[in-house]
Amino acid sequence: MDRAGKSDVKVDVAIVGAGMGGLIAAIEAAGMGARVTVLDKLGPMIGKGIKAHGFGWFGNETCRAGGGGLDQVEPEMPVEELLALHRKQGWGRVDLELLRLFHERVPGDIRWLRDDLGLPFTSTGSLFGSILLQTVHVKGRGPGLMRFLYQAAEKRGIEIRFETKVLELLTGDLGEVIGLRERDAGGTRDIHAGAVVLAAGGFEGNNEMMLRYVGPQITYGAVISGCPTNTGDGHQMALEAGAQLANMSVCHINTTNQLLSEGPTRRLRNIWPGGIYVNKEGQRFIDEGTADSDTLSNAIAYQPGSVAALIFDERARLKDPEAYAAYPYKDKLIRSAATIEKLAETIEMPSAQLRRIVNEFNAAVKEGKAPSAGSGQAPGLPIPKTREAHRLETPPYYAYYPVVPGLNHTLGGVKINTAAQVIDRENRPIAGLYAAGSMVNWSFGKPFTVAGVTSYMGNYHIRSSKKGGALGGLSTALVFGRIAGERAAQAAIKKPKRRKS
Ligand SMILES: Cc1cc2nc3c(=O)[nH]c(=O)nc-3n(C[C@H](O)[C@H](O)[C@H](O)COP(=O)(O)OP(=O)(O)OC[C@H]3O[C@@H](n4cnc5c(N)ncnc54)[C@H](O)[C@@H]3O)c2cc1C
User: Fold this and answer.
1) What pLDDT, on a 0 to 100 scale, did the predictor assign at position 249?
2) Which CATH number fits domain 253-406: 3.10.450.50, 3.90.700.10, 3.30.460.40, 1.20.58.220?
3) Using CA atoms, how far apart are residues 36 and 18, in angstroms rounded to an integer?
4) Is ligand 1 within 6 A of the CB of residue 14?
5) Distance 49 CA to ligand 1 centre (A)
6) Host H or E run for residue 275
7) What pTM does this model have?
8) What confidence tens digit (pLDDT) does each residue in 369-394 have?
9) What CATH architecture applies to the domain 9-250+411-494?
10) How far, CA to CA in Å, does 260 sit from each of 227, 268, 293, 403?
């Protein structure tokens, strides 16, 4: 082993990854009196790292903050009802114990961020204009959140070392985790720790793992809108320590574009369902009325060249003119024209084909009485549109092109229990090893089939006809980061119990 003159050190809790999950775990563990060190292979707050740490919305699906904001968080849906919905829609793949714990804790943990740590929230409000997704927003969004957490960690005496890559876990004779091996510009060394928390993010940046677990279309068809340096190192280290992985094929994908900015499903949420999506050959490929953003983005990955155009008209735009006006990338990404033929020319699509597909679509539309409420159908087409179908006949016409699928992060990962302990392949906790954040298996939802490929609806989302919901990655990193930090500190300070075999 190359030690380059570096001597080994001893801490109570060693944490892999300085994202939301790792920093929250660190702050919690330090609060319990543990000596904590956090290691991250990236430099602090650079490039995409900022973006990959999220936009800074915290959401959950049972709580709706009333007029009193965070102090009056009320369940929107009884937890039992929600769990039953997950049980039904998750096809038995949902960890209901973790989900229950998450829902019980999340309002209090968000208040802890505000009251104990002093994180400034700008507002409470609904996500993307939806009345169903109640969220709180962090001042400065993702970068603001991360800067705040670095400072909070430093104030508590937590050592954060950037540009330091964790290579492997150290294990004892009984398989318990006793530390890790890391490397920075000065060489390699071992850190002996009473407990290790893995919070190393997803594996979206690792082609080999993406091909193995997810498949070629998403690996090559989607651009990485998350963090390309999240390469599944934590998953690999956990596997070597005997961990169980679950739901590894599930990813969170959203529409994006060549700027890697927020695509139509994020920022034109009320407008895009009123249009149609066509691929490069001018063919529709999805029921835009039922697709959520993940479904749509998955489907685009399977189209020729993995690109699509969103075609809409003035009537659709007028469903949310404020969102359209506020969309910062429209001059670069959205073209308009007085006719469908001219619009086709602006996106280099055969104009006769686009005209034909729009005519065919228009002829099938049965307008509903209240289009703004989502009615209107276009049945009888090779791919019907079951909601929000209205004729594209009000000029000017618009083309958002190219829309491409953006891989935010993977969602499958290591199995943990309610104490955030990593579970081994015999279903026992691995002593000394905890995990939090997006490397933990946190995927729920109903499998759906698009273009012959079965995937999952909306990553950590479930939806019924009445309710929508989101378990944001930041909220789950918060809840399980706190638990991991607390339990790791307890184990480290009191000496963990060893596994029996
Ligand atoms: C564009 C985008 C927008 C998002 N917006 C939201 C939002 O608004 N609300 C929300 O709730 N969620 C959002 N998410 C999801 C959310 O950002 C993530 O779920 C959350 O940040 C995950 O935190 P984490 O700590 O698990 O991982 P990360 O923040 O990815 O941190 C993992 C860290 O581990 C480090 N690491 C990896 N391997 C090693 C190694 N071998 N050694 C040392 N360090 C290592 C990485 O460098 C990285 O810094 C968004 C995600 C993206 C990509």
Assistant:
1) 84
2) 3.90.700.10
3) 12
4) no
5) 8
6) none
7) 0.87
8) 654 555 789 999 999 999 889 999 99
9) 3-Layer(bba) Sandwich (3.50)
10) 12, 15, 15, 10
